[in-house]
Specification:
By secondary structure, this protein is of the alpha/beta class. It has 2 domains: about 15-70 and about 375-410, Roll (Urease, subunit C, domain 1), CATH 2.30.40.10; about 75-340, Metal-dependent hydrolases (TIM Barrel, Alpha-Beta Barrel), CATH 3.20.20. It has helices at about 1-20, 90-95, 100-115, 135-140, 185-195, 220-235, 245-255, 270-275, 285-295, 305-320, 340-350, 355-370, and strands at about 20-30, 35-45, 45-50, 60-70, 75-80, 120-125, 150-155, 160, 180, 200-205, 205-210, 215-220, 240-245, 260, 280, 385-390, 400-405, 410. The strands form 5 sheets. It has a 7-stranded mixed beta sheet, covered by helices on one side. It has a 4-stranded parallel beta sheet with strand order 10-13-14-15. Strands 5-6-7 form a 3-stranded parallel beta sheet. Bound molecules: zinc ion.
Length: about 425
């Protein structure tokens, strides 16, 4: 009886893996180029054909999407599933008042929202005080306990002692912090510890708002940053740096980080340095855009644009002109999970060509994050595929119109 069950199981899985699904649409964006009337054939969890509709072999089942665009699953470059918009609860309160368990349960739901929005992979940039809840959420997805995107997680992230929040308490009062403090030689231990606890990469705050007037100032020295990068690299992991100041970015670049997050005050000189060293930038336009509205009282119109938005626009222009690789990531969590496309709309609005935005959120992100079989519809690549109604090359907002999400060869039931 047991043998019979096993044989049945084996046969079923054999036939299941032999199932070929053909998906076609009016347009196909393969991660690089747009083609008309193309499609893919998926077998198991792998893309086995990408071709014009007439040339594709017949699958066991075929789905055609007319008026739609077939493309790789999008990759969110900067998320925080453990955060939600600060106008609903201030960052301090999320970190100080909510239990880790509560945050993890909410975070799991937020991860699912990212997947439903067409983001089949997310790079999550720190648990912000929730320990290794991000690692647990990632594991829950891998175990099939919850539905969610593939996750690359940072774990706790590293800050220089005294620089990070929450702040402003009686000095004898030890409050839980949004990241793990470490300095000097101890950085080596902390990097190794975070890796041991499940970090896929190490996130470091190269600067933070700890200046005399609460302005952003560099934190770690170049030597400290180099030690972090060197220690992580030895384990085959990258380091990414939060940096808003030019000096923070300069140090992070010289130390050898892979990407720089935010980058508000970057100079042309540092951009040049980043280009030479192959450091990518993640501008997180949507974070600034949201905060200016819900805290700054901005109504969102161009005519009333506050200074912070004007300078972000100008920064993005300089980045575009510099030729530095731009990874797409909005800092989602600061604004609602599931509205990730907002970042892509802003990238287009601030002057990036639509096709370049599409490349950024697929093939460019994949390459920058070391995901060698994702981000493109290519034979041999993993079957992370979405279909959106309309033509995002004409209107980036069409990326909100999700019709199909396939992750790892499996069609996700959308809610
Ligand atoms: Zn962030």
């Amino acid at each position: 009886m047991r043998t019979l069950t096993l044989i049945t199981l084996l046969l079923t899985s054999f036939f299941l893996s032999a199932q070929k699904i053909t998906i076609t649409a009016d347009r196909l964006f393969d991660g690089i180029n747009i083609r008309t009337n193309w499609g893919v054939v998926v077998e198991g969890n792998v893309i086995v054909e990408v071709n014009a509709i007439g040339k594709l072999s017949k699958g066991d089942s075929t789905i055609h999407f007319s008026g739609s665009t077939l493309m790789p699953g999008m990759i969110e470059g900067h998320s925080h599933v453990l955060l939600y918009p600060y106008n609903r609860a201030e960052w301090n309160d999320q970190v100080l008042k909510e239990s880790r368990s509560l945050r993890a349960i909410r975070g799991a739901k937020m991860a699912t929202k990212n997947l439903y929005a067409g983001f089949t992979t997310i790079r999550d940039l720190g648990s912000e005080g929730a320990g290794y809840a991000d690692v647990a959420i990632k594991q829950s997805i891998e175990l099939g306990i919850i539905e969610g995107p593939r996750m690359l997680v940072a774990g706790r992230a590293i800050v220089a002692t005294g620089s990070y929040g929450p702040k402003g308490f009686h000095p004898d009062f030890e409050v839980p912090l949004g990241a793990e403090p470490a300095d000097g030689a101890n950085l080596q231990t902390v990097v190794r510890d975070q890796i041991g606890k499940g970090a896929d990469f190490v996130k470091v705050y190269a600067d933070y708002r700890w200046g005399p007037n609460n302005e952003a100032r560099p934190t770690f020295s170049i030597e400290e940053l180099k030690l972090i990068v060197e220690t992580a690299a030895s384990s085959g992991r990258d380091v990414v740096a939060h940096a808003a100041t030019n000096e923070g970015m300069r140090r992070a670049t010289l130390a050898g980080v892979k990407t720089i997050e935010h980058g508000s005050d970057v100079s042309d000189e540092v951009l040049q340095l980043m280009k030479e060293r192959g450091v990518a930038i993640c501008p997180t336009l949507a974070a600034t855009h949201s905060i200016q509205q819900y805290f700054g009282g901005w109504d969102g119109r161009d005519e009333t644009e506050p200074e912070a938005i004007k300078s972000k626009r100008a920064m993005f222009k300089r980045v575009l002109n510099s030729g530095v690789t731009i990874v797409a990531g909005g800092d989602v969590g600061v604004f609602e999970h599931g509205e990730n496309v907002r970042e892509l709309e802003l990238m287009a609005d601030y002057g990036m060509k639509e096709i370049d935005v599409l490349q950024s959120v697929t093939s460019v992100n994949a390459k920058a994050f070391g995901l060698n079989d994702l981000g493109q519809l290519r034979v041999g690549f993993l079957a992370d595929i979405i279909v959106v109604k309309g033509n995002p090359e004409k209107d980036i907002g069409d990326l909100y119109n999700i019709e199909l999400v396939m992750k790892d060869g499996r069609i996700i039931e959308l809610e």
